Amino acid sequence: MALLRVSNLEVDFDTPEGLVKAVNGMNFEVAEGETLAIVGESGSGKSQMVLSFMGLLAENGHARGEALFHDKDLLKMNPRDLNRIRGKHIAMIFQDPMTSLNPFLTIEKQMAEVVMHHQGLGREEARSHAVEMLRAVRIPDPEERIKQYPHEYSGGMRQRVMIAIGLLCEPELLIADEPSTALDVTVQAQIIELVSELRKQTHMALILITHDLAAVAEIADRIVVMYAGEAVETGSVDDIFYRPQHPYTRGLLASVPRLDRESDDELQAIPGNPPNLLDLPVGCRFRDRCVEAVEQCRQRPPLWVTQDGRSSRCVLPVEGGEILEEPAAVEQTA
Question: Which pLDDT belongs to residue 332?
């Protein structure tokens, strides 16, 4: 059963230069207890997509489509109703904890207020719950550390605090937006492992947003690969890593360091840069960077789907797949 179902989601922004089309026709589901990874380069629309149905877009942003949580559309909720869901039923961890935590309040104050607001606990009971959650995310000496301010924590410790805040009310869905980006490699691995362990213990669903395919290899159930605001491929972890269909997915995998590569093998970078979202290319959005591009790529590529739920938007056929959306007419401009 789908806990969250996103359909035909579009997000754009009014700017002095024109309309930025950040997300275009996204469709995906997250089942109860499932881990869904959303992967793509910076600027592919991953974060704006989730911010839209969390009601956290910038003032110049607009969202259309559906985001059904327990069959209630988050996009159509007023701020008051949405506030009842955020924090309690859906929690979000942001990529920069220093800008997410209030530098003028102690960790205790920031954590206690969450459970006092959503669960109606008294201050002492809320403090005890917060201490236990800090212990769960492996903050040493939590009884003392909870009295401190965010600047007294290291970057990795601040991110652990953000995870603890996200889990305080035992949400059904946790959204982790690049939770380890600003951290060194060793701490990154610890944070990803911690999030995975806590998800298993609480049986919550998890949406993990990242640009790093390697970071999701062991913890995700399914992966959505985004490029220029749309999903180009969706599949299980094994499908994406061992049977990638879309040229962009294969390019991402080729650029990831691997232990089974020869030491003198060079990493293969994807040529060029992502397109300008103010002026998206006609046809396939990846064609100008694709080494497998053909003349057909000047038209909108078809969407291939298989019975086991994997998909690819490309002129290249998917084994065992059928076309769900026919290709659009050939564009006349380049």
Answer: 41
Helices 123-136 and 107-119 pack at an angle, to 10 degrees, of 110
Cα angle for residues 262, 266, 269 (degrees, 5° grid): 140
The pLDDT value given to residue 217: 85
Cβ pair 111, 133 in contact under 8 A: yes
CA angle 25–83–24, rounded 5-degree value: 10
**CATH numeric code, 2-89+172-271:** 3.40.50.300
* Spatial distance between the Cα atoms of 1 and 33, rounded to a whole number of angstroms: 10
Q: Which two tokens stand for residue 39?
A: 């992967």
Token code pair at residue 301: 């590529």
Q: Are 170 and 13 in contact (CB under 8 A)?
A: no
* Dist CA 100 CA 110 (whole Å): 11
**253/223 Cα distance (integer angstroms):** 13
What ranges do the domains of the chain cover? 2-89+172-271, 97-170
Of the candidates 164, 165, 217, which has an alpha carbon nearest to the alpha carbon of residue 194? 164
What is residue 184's predicted lDDT score, i.e. its pLDDT? 67
Name the pTM for this structure.
0.89
Reported as a single tens digit per residue, the pLDDT across 226-280 is 999 999 999 999 999 999 999 999 999 988 776 665 655 666 788 889 999 999 9
Backbone angles phi, psi at 175, to 5 degrees: -110, 120
Nearest Cα residue to 56 out of 26, 86, 20, 89: 86
Q: Is the pLDDT of residue 320 over 90?
A: no
